[in-house]
Write a structure and sequence with these properties.
Keywords: Membrane, Transmembrane, Transmembrane helix. This is DUF1574 domain-containing protein. This protein has 376 residues and is α/β, with parallel strands linked by helices. It has a domain of 251 residues: Rossmann fold. Helices cover 55% and strands 7% of the residues. A five-stranded parallel β-sheet has the order 2-1-3-4-5, with helices on both faces. Helix 5 links the parallel strand 1 and strand 2. Helix 9 packs across helix 10.
Length: 376
Amino acid sequence: MNQAPGASPLTRSRFLPQLRKPVFVQTAYPPAYSARRRAGRTVLWGAIALLVANAALSVSVETVLPQVRDPEYGYRLVRLRAQQRAHPGRSLVLAIGTSRTQNVIDPTAMGFPDEPGSPLVFNFGQSGARPPHLRLALQRLFAEGVRPAAVAVEILPATLAYDGSVDDLFREQPARLTAADLARLAPYLDDPAVLRRRWLGTRVNSWEAFHMTILSHLAPEIQPWPERVAFQWTMTDAHGFSAYPQTISAADRERKRERAFASYGSAARDLQVRPLAERAFRDLVSDCRAANVPIAFYLAPESPIFRSWYSPESRATLAAFARMLSDELKCPVFEAPTDFAEEDFADGHHALRPAAARFSRGLAEQHLKPWLGSVR
């Protein structure tokens, strides 16, 4: 470097370090910019927290929280396991069926003693169940490690006439299924990909799929009544029995029976056993045989007016189906008693509590005890 005119070496050494020292200029951002950055970070972390919470909920309902995914099934499973823990020496007998089963099988009224080796009956009815639902319930239980000593399955005649597809049965309830359930249903589905996509949507947005159930647990008072699902666990006892919730006046009974006729009257007049129903029952029997579990079938009682809806041809069709189960598949079929009155039912086929106790005692004494004794 050329020396500046008049500058001495001493002068250069005095100022050179100052020339080399970096100069930092601090920029002051406006307050609005800093607030936007903080807000952006908050939104980002909030989004991450939501994604993590949704993923945790999706995994939980798939594995350890069946009560949230499918309360009707999940709470019965929880209570079933509690009964097995409380009575480890007793032989589990499952009653699988529809809402009729929920209301008419009262295990505490059956009179089985609480002692080792005695049957421990558990009511595993599910409302609105069709034959594919019944098979799926048993498949789920087997997969959960539940190994009953015997299974009794309800035959509801009108459900044998269901002529829709399994795709339609589960179209509105994919959230209740697990990935394993999709595989179980695949042989019955016309297009498994459609149900799989709908199911995946419920897992991507688990809060939307399960918020009614979650709120019914945490804050039922803020839920409007049509959206509350708490009755699915608050009205079921330790043995799975769901007593009909109210006393029925004659006028209410007539209105409810009219609605029942709208749902079941045409099937009762012209009963036809559709291929889907027969296939599901045959598969259900095969599942039990593969697991070495004895299986029987039973029909629930109906009121005199309800029974009058069946035509002679429909009765013959039902009898032929029962013979297929008993003669071909070698499964006992327990016929329904016909001595119940109109006042024993809420709507002609859902039994009130006294009728449920009476039917349960008769089923145990006349059918279950002899059958269980023979298969034991």
